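Entry 14. Ran structure prediction on the chain below.
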Amino acid sequence: MKIGLLNAYAYNPDADDFQQTYGAMFQRFFAEHFPSDFSLYEYNVTQRHWPNSLQECDGWIIGASQHGVHDKNSWITKLMEFACACHFNQHPLIGIGFGHQVIAHALGGEVNRSRKGWGAGVHDFKVRQQKPWMTPELTNCLLYFGHKYQVDMLPDKATLLAGSCFCLHQMFAIGDHIFALQGHPEYDGSFMQVWLDHSKLTKEQYKQAVASLDQSTHSKAVGGWMRQFFTAGQG
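Output, structure tokens:
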């Protein structure tokens, strides 16, 4: 099964290049949680590297970014059009972090800056509803986070899967073809630390976020959900 990663980190040759670091980290995550009959193809969309069609891959993942859905970039508009096309054609699509917000915004939801400030480090949230592909089942889930915007209103026909007091809409699904989550199962501890070191958190926010990194996350379980989401539509 061929999965396409739309890497939305912008390339910056004059600073730590999160685009390349993110792509390599995602490859490791994919190799760990997906079997050998899956293959991952990366598209650096901020550098105009786009798939030729939806059918070029069996499923798609819109990943993280240092940008926001309200930024005035042509590639963000094109990414939203891509999300709409996946929805219209019921082509499997996962959104993570920024990708979660792109899908929500593109399909009529609402994304705003959080009034509670940054969500950074390891955060926990409650699973409100289970899908058949969400095995093993979890009632409480911990993942890495790094966001100042969040989904305040879900798109039409979206099902809320998980949330917390800090961020009500942590995970949602639409039909059997869209799965979106604010947290980052693909992040590892070293990437999260570098991300925090380059963030604009206050000293207190930074201290709390770094302290949270001692907690274990449920990346393995959520990685399994992602795999099972893609295979669920193949039966």
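The chain has six helices and eleven strands. Will compare against last week's run tomorrow.
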